[in-house]
Amino acid sequence: MKGVAETEGYVAKSARTATKTSTPVAETAQPVSIVSRKQLDDRQPQNVTEAISYIPGVRGGQFGAEPRFDSFKIRGIDLTYTGVFRDGLRQISSPNGLFRIEPYGVEALTVLRGPAASIYGASSSGGIVDIISKRPTEEQLREVELQYGSYGRKQAAFDFSGPVTDDGVLLYRLTGVVRDGRNEIEAIKDDRLMIVPALTWQPDDGTTFTLLGEYMDSTTGGTWGYINNYGPGGTSIGATPVYGGDARFNDFDQEQWRIGYELEHALGDHLTLHHKLRYSELSNRQEWVFEDFPGLSLEDNRGVAADTYLETEFDTGNARHRLIGGIDYSFMEYEARQGSGPDLFTDTYTYVPTLTYYEKQRQSSIGLYIQDQIEIDAWRIGMGLRHDWHSSEYTPGGTAYSRDDSETTGRASVGYVTPWNIMPYVSYGTSYVANPGVILSFGSGASQAEPTRGTQYEIGLKYEIPDHNVLISTAFFNIDQENASVYETSSGVNLLRQLDLRSRGVELEITATLDNGLSLTGGYSYNDVEITKLTPETVGNQHNSSPYHMFSLWADYEVQTGALEGLGVGAGVRYVGSSFGDNVHTPVLENGARTFVDAAIRYDLGKITPEMEGVKLQVNATNLLDEINQVCTTGFCYFDEGRKVIASMRYRF
What we know:
Layout: E1 5-8, E2 11-15, E3 23-24, E4 32-35, H1 37-43, H2 48-51, E5 58-60, E6 72-74, E7 77-78, E8 84-86, E9 89-90, E10 106-113, H3 117-120, E11 127-133, E12 141-149, E13 153-163, E14 170-180, E15 191-204, E16 207-221, E17 226-230, E18 236-243, E19 251-268, E20 271-290, E21 293-316, E22 319-340, E23 357-376, E24 379-396, E25 401-416, E26 422-433, E27 438-441, E28 445-448, E29 452-464, E30 470-488, E31 495-513, E32 518-533, E33 549-558, E34 567-576, E35 594-604, E36 615-622, E37 630-633, E38 636-639, E39 644-652
Parallel strand pairs: 8-11
Antiparallel strand pairs: 1-2, 2-3, 4-10, 5-6, 6-7, 8-9, 10-11, 12-13, 12-39, 13-14, 14-15, 15-16, 16-19, 17-18, 19-20, 20-21, 21-22, 22-23, 23-24, 24-25, 25-26, 26-29, 27-28, 29-30, 30-31, 31-32, 32-33, 33-34, 34-35, 35-36, 36-39, 37-38
InterPro entries: Beta-barrel_TonB, Beta-barrel_TonB_sf, Plug_dom, Plug_dom_sf, TonB-dep_rcpt-like, TonB_sidphr_rcpt
Organism: Pseudorhizobium tarimense
Protein name: Iron complex outermembrane receptor protein
């Protein structure tokens, strides 16, 4: 994908996510992983968590088969609310209002590990995941796809793109999905209707304007989880196989839409204006029942995200500079209404809980930033500095809180590109996130949360093998993070607190796409996530549901010649090491190590006869061996997602 996330097969070549410039990934002093469209087509992931599951340092599945949100950690730090971006702009979210992402509408996912606040502002110290939308193409594309899979899944999708005018000045793309399905728990739906239009206008070589839209209406289950057994102090001692919800009152409906644009315009030979803006809204209605106790939650959020910067190149002596400077702005407001009721069941479940609790919040931030990338012979030097102003007005249950924060973040790095295409580097970066919510602080009442701040040191090495499409990278990192908002259950009571931690570890990643039809991606990570402040009994412990060791490898082979030409097979293994199920390390809640096997097979029928040109059949399986174990997180226990098989037929014409 030119300009935004360029790849060759599985291998990342350049990406704007790390620096907001088209910098080669092999010369970027920070780990950058791109899940390309080819990899998405080969593996057929059904959500963001599955899509990034083969990237080192990524931990998903801590809530089992959680269908409501894309929940995952990077480098032991949760990114669910603070690390998801869309096309380089912050994805607006609220406590129960996270935008749902359909992988069929995605061109690529770029995962940037480590702080990125110096150019993005408020974001996680673990990194960001940038969702790259499908954009109009200059070549004509016409595709329809049908799927059928586990739990009665039925899906139809289409993707049309190409020039509107003969001269290619105007391009279009229209992508759509309709799905009817269920989860492995029968009471949980997996229904979706999505339509994604896009239009590009490029009147000359120096100007590109792209309009990006989306409408999605989706339904999943409002209750997620199994009934747990409880011991002394009210803490869980394990999950039972009994679902905690009820199919009669369990829909989690969400309607969302977004509209935005991107403009790139050359103001001169070495000066380019970049400007993008997006407005988004969502409304949801969540019905839930847990152990015969029903509840209802309604939430609406809306927001704007915008970014404008200038990019220029110039020389000072033998130093080549690529300088950007810009300003971005984001605004979010949400309203939530909640209520729960007594045990009132009927055959049709006509009872609806009364909404008795109300909260709202408005957050806005504006940031100024500057970044210089300097090349001096084989040296690659990066420096970035940013200052943000953030304001928040939060009213939970009628009590108003407000605060204003002013934060400065930065990043610096040095790398050296050797004649053998090896680049060692060192980097330093800081981050911050302004937390919504109220912290229960014993002895001093309640107050709005302090911002989460982070500092990272990193040493790494990248190796792009000459004359081969292979990229190998490794990194050692140390992150110190303070004041992360978490729920702590060690006392038997679920309290919102602020956590300090130290995350340090090593990552190794390899991606390759070779001329013989073999593609692979995989990696290993060791991650020690130590609690440095929370409660006296947890300090010094490994943070819950954070494995020390994780390993993954996916390999795909497509036969190039002979009688089997057009046949493709893929297989993958994902190892998740042992971890603790709560922060006090209760022995009965410990999560044992587990290994998941995935597989795929496909065939291009056009290789048999010209009449079938463009038809491809494919079958994908995740957790093929149906490895299911208990997994506990924050003191509550779930089960791993079981085997899932999806068959698809695609026709391109």
